Amino acid sequence: MNKLKRYAGILWMLLGPLTCYFLISTAIAEIKSKPVIDTKIQWAVFVIVFIPIAIGMVIFGWYALQGEYDQLPENSDDVAD
Amino acid sequence: MKPQNKGIWKIIGASSLGTLIEWYDFYIFGSLATVIANQFFPKTNPTAALLSTLATFAAGFIVRPFGALVFGRLGDMIGRKYTFLLTLVLMGGATFGIGLVPGYDKIGFAAPIIVLLLRLLQGLALGGEYGGAATYVAEHAPADKRGYFTSWIQTTATLGLFVSLGVILLTRHGLDSDPAKSIAKFNDWGWRIPFLVSILLVGVSIYIRLKMSESPLYAKLKSEGKTSVNPLKESFAHKGNLKMVLLALFGATMGQGVIWYTGQFYAQSFLENVCKLDFDQSRTILIWAIVFATPFFVVFGSLSDRIGRKWIMIIGMLAGVLLYRPIFTMFKNDTNVKEWLQQELVVVKQDSSTTVLVNQTLAITKTVFQTKDNIQFTETKTDTLQANNMRIADTKPLYSGVTLNTATYTKFAALVFLLILFVTMVYGPIAAFLVELFPTKIRYTSMSLPYHIGNGVFGGLTPFIATLLTTIYTNDALIGLWYPIVVAAVCMIIGTLYINNKIDPNVND
Question: pLDDT digit string (tens) for B88-100?
């Protein structure tokens, strides 16, 4: 199970950039096809909000790959480390 | 310190009432999006007005994570009690303020700007409220009933929506004995009442909360001088805690958020905009579904004390992934106007009117039809009148006001009930799950952020993104569902792989 958790980490790390690519390419296409202020605002909001989350997904994947989730903390002292 | 059962109901009641009122305040804005658009945004382009309001709505959700950081930090530094008192005052003040802002026709662009700022303030306050209330109750609850007691806090989001829908419907129909006049008054000025009423509710809740004492676990920590000096740094700059924040977000709250908003908001939006259901019917369907589904928050919260939190949440997500498309397909197929137009229809009512514009006159004909199954709908035809009184039909007829017969209405209410049942599975145990994941001294901050990114950003944007997808890919009315389905599926896989099903026996550390 721990091996699967670690290998799946690669998938989560790829999911981050993939989401960014999909988001930015769709935003560009949509803004080009409807260059009005509403389209620009809504897609800017999506890009600004979801890119940090995608980065978080990459970090999560990295931690998973490193085996950080092999054993979850049993008490708060482990969490605070 | 051993948490005592005595007085727990007082604690739950006081915490839940305030949280319910905050949700109520937050949701009346979303529920009245169209009316508010007419009041505060330029009326020349209704779509732009609606989008602006939805953007404001989204802004309300996007600032929630910032509220979680600001108030979470305060809650971990000065205490739970005063922090969530502050969020309540902010929320009540902002809601009351929206009810007082003059319309765009009176003060111009200042109106939407003030409304936007007040909406942002609402988002900030909500971001601080939930984590405080959930933490406060959990820190009073005995270990074997933590899921059960915190599930009462979990009912407040749905009940806040319920109360907001109820107040809106009552106000909409209570302003005049003539229903049409009552609705017109509501759209003109009556929409302000639900906002203004909030100040009374908030006043009562502040009074109750002032009488509450600090969380025993936090008070002990403070008396020992062990509170966190920098909760933000300890929560997000320390790998040990950051990895748990990320796990909470990607393995639980992001899926919970989309399931919540698909069941309780996108469903309503779909019934109204795709199925063209009558305003009152789409809302009363949701009200009935909420009434019957709400007890299940407590059922699943309580069950999670016995079998663990993980699998209940995962099954809730799986149900959404597998059943959203079949359920929404039923909504769509049962309100297929094109199919009804093939039948022999009875004309119930027909009204004609003319509107004179700058260089043309429009003749508008509204016809109410009834199908053989007693379903009614309105067809609106707009023709251009020429000088010789010739009519030119220049637009496709529009269909709206679908009024279902009793059998279909009951079926729709049952299907929405099912959607909300999935919500109760993912949402009922989640407060206890999040509380158990983090240490007391940074709990408020650490649990608030993943909750509000999951619920606020992923969930709150669901109706918006789903609707947007239908405007990009116009051939499939159900395309919008792929957003919650994909997000819930990813979250379900992460949750299944990485979260364990253990119940933390000790949250005192």
Answer: 899 999 999 999 9
Partners of B403 in beta bridges: B376
Q: What is the pLDDT of residue B320?
A: 97
- Specify whether the CB–CB gap between B502 and B309 falls below 8 A: no
From B506's Cα to the closest Cα of chain A, the distance in A is 8
Handedness of CA B430, B11, B127, B22 (dihedral sign): positive
* Pairwise CA distance, residues B126 & B472, whole Å: 32
Same domain, B486 and B379: no
pLDDT for B191 beyond 70:
yes
Same domain, B185 and B216: yes
Residues of chain A contacting B468 with CB distance shorter than 8 Å: 42
Angstroms from B497 CA to nearest CA on chain A: 6
Complex ipTM value:
0.93
pLDDT tens digits for range A25-53 = 989 998 898 887 767 777 888 888 899 99
Is B445 found in the same domain as B313?
yes
Full domain range(s) for residue B184: 8-335+405-498
User: Mind giving me the DSSP string for B182-243?
Assistant: HHHHIIIIITHHHHHHHHHHHHHHHHHHHTPPPPHHHHHHHHTT-S-S-HHHHHHTSHHHHH
**Chain A nearest-CA residue for B66:** A49
**CB < 8 Å to A42, chain B:** 51, 55, 58, 464, 468
Q: Which residues of A8-44 are buried (b: 16+ CB within 10 A; e: fewer)?
A: bbeebbebbeebbeebeebbeebeeeeeeebbeebbe
B344: left (phi over 0), alpha (psi -120 to 50) or beta: beta
pLDDT, tens digit, for every residue of B150-183? 999 989 988 898 899 899 989 999 998 898 899 9
B409 CA to centre of own chain? 22
